[in-house]
Description:
Radius of gyration of chain A: 19 Å
CATH topology of chain A: TIM Barrel
CATH architecture of chain A: Alpha-Beta Barrel
Oligomer: heterodimer
Number of helices of chain A: 7
Low-confidence stretches of chain B: 1-8
Number of domains of chain B: 2
Low-confidence stretches of chain A: 308-326
Distance between the termini of chain B: 37 Å
Largest sheet of chain A: 8 strands, parallel
Order of helices and strands of chain A: EEEEEEHEHEHEHEEEEEHEHEH
Amino acid sequence: MNSPSLAVSIxxxxxxxxxxxxxxxxxxxxxxxxxxxxxxxxxVVTKTVTMNERIGNPxxxxxxxxxxxxxxxxxMNPGWDGFVERTLPKVAALPCPFILxxxxxxxxxxxxxxxRAGELAEVAALELNLSCPNVSGGLDFGRDPVAAEQIVARxxxxxxxxxxxxLSPNVEDVVPIAQACERGGAxxxxxxxxxxxxxxxxxxxxxxxxxxxxxVSGPAIKPMALLAVFRTSxxxxxxxxxxxxxxxxxxxxxxxxAGATAVQxxxxxxxxxxxxxxxxxxxRRLLQSEGIEDIRxxxxxxxxxxxxxxxxxxxxxxxxxxxxxK
Amino acid sequence: xxxxxxxxxxxxxxxxxxxxxxxxxPDCWRLEIRCPEFARSATPGQFLMLRCRQGLDPLLSRAxxxxxxxxxxxxxxxxxxxxxVIGVGTLALTKRVVGEEIGFLGPLGNPYDLGTPDExxxxxxxxxxxxxxxxxxxxxxxxxxxxxxTYLVGGRxxxxxxxxxxxxxxxxxxxxxTDDGSxxxxxxxxxLLDPLLASGVRVLACGPNPMFKSLASxxxxxxxxxxxxxxxxxxxxxxxxxxxxxxxxxxxxxxxxHPDGFRYGKSCVEGPVFPVEAIRWDLIRSIH
Lengths: 326, 288
C-alpha cells in the first residue's frame, strides 16, 4: 500500500498531519526548534500571549496528580511587544504552521491583539484562549454563548486569520458555547482547556496553590475531553481540535474517531519535547499497519450519523497499543 | 524505545541502562545508570529528568542532580543519582532493577561557576542537597590537587548526613552539623560556614529553602562588613519538565525592569544555579 495520507485541513489551514502542540506546553514555539524536528508535526500553538507582560502566579505553580497534573501558571508571557521583539524574528524559519494563542483582559484587547496578529505574515492562525482558569476573568468569555459569539466575530473580522476558539470544560455544557463560536465565524473550536481542581497540604491546613484553584491536565482527563469532542463535533459543522491527555498515536486516533479533525499534545510534552514528533511518526506507522490510506476517513467515524463534511469510511479496529516509555 | 543515547541536544530523551540501585542509608538510594554520551557531556551542578517507571504512571519525570560520574579506563561512561524516597515517583525508582532501560533528559541546566583553583571552595549542603557535591569535589580535585576544598554538610540527624566520607576521601575538609547533635556540631550548617567566610572564598550551596534563606542573610551581613566573595545556590524547585516548557519551577528573581522589583525565572533553564543575591528570598514561601 502507498504511504498513508495524514494531511488534514482546519478551514483554509492545511496541516501535514493532525498533531499540534498545545498552548502552554511548548513555549512560544521557537525555543525547541533546534531540539525537535518540527517539520514532522502539523504545527505549533504558542503559549498565550497577552497585551502586557505577565510575570505569572507565585509558586508553587504545579502539582502532580494521579495520571496528570495541576497547574496555576497564570499566563506568564512577555506580552505583545516582547513577543514581537524576541519570538517573531524566529518564527519565519519554523518548518510548520505557527498558531498564535492570545488572551485579552477585555473584548477590546482580544480584538486589538487579533488585529495586530492579522498584520503578521508569520502567523498562520489564531487560537483565542477563552478558557484560562488561572487568571481572574480568564473564563468569562468562554462561559456565555452571547459573549463568545461576539468576541469570535470581532476577532475574525479584525484579524482575517483562521481562528480557533479554545473552550473550557468548566461550563454546564460546552456544546452551546461551541455553537456560538461557529455562528461567530470561528474556523474551528479547540476542546478542551484544563478542568478546575485543587490540591491540599493537609499538614499546613491550606491549599497548595495561592489562588486556591488550578487546572487539571494529562491522561486523567482524556475520557472527559473525548466526550466533549464526541458530543460537540456532532453538533457543529466546523472542525474540532481535540485536546486532553494525548500521549500516543492511539490517543490521536481515538480523538479523530470521536470527531476531532486535529489534536494538540500538551502535558505529554513535559515528559519529552519530542513527544509530538514521536506521536506523529507512530501515527503514520499505525495507519500503515492498519491499512488506512487517508486519516480523514477516521474523522467522526464513531458518530451515529456522520456530519456532512466528513468522508464516509469504516476503519478497521485499532489495537490498544501499550504506551511505552519514550 | 526509539530514543538514542547519542544525542547532542541536552533535552533529548536518552536511554541508559541501570547498572546499580542500592539503599545506602535509610530511604536513600544510589542509582547508577550507564550512558557514556551523557557522562561525557555533563558538568558539575547540572541535572537530569528521570522517568521513574515505564509507562505514564507516575506521569512526570523527576529532577535529580548529577551526584557522580562512573569511569571506565579513565573515560566517563555513566552517572550516579542519589535519591531520597519522598513519594510515588521516588518509590518507583527504588524498584528499578539492574539491566533494565531507563529514560531521561539531560544533562540540563546551568552548572556551577567553579572559579579558579586559587580560591578556597566551600561547599554547603543541607539534607539531600548534598547530591551534586561528590561530582563537584571530584571535578575540582581532578582540576587541582592543591585547591583548598571544604564540605559543610547538615542534616536532621546522623542518618541524614550524606556523602561526608566519600568527599573527605577526595582530600576535602569535612564538617558536619545535625539538628539534634547526633553527629558533629549541633545546629545549622550555616553556623559552620560563618567563621570560614573571607574575601576570595567561593561558596556553592544546595539544600532546602530555609537553609538558603539563612545563607542569604549571612552572606548579606558578611558583604556589608566588607568581605568580597562569590556565593551560588542550586535551587530545589519541583520541575515538571526540566527544559523550560512548563514554567512551573520558577523562583523570584530581582529585576529593576519590573514594577515590583522582581520577575519569576524558570529555575530549569535560567538556573538551577543562581548567584545567591539574584533571588528574592523574602518572596519564597516554604510549604514544607
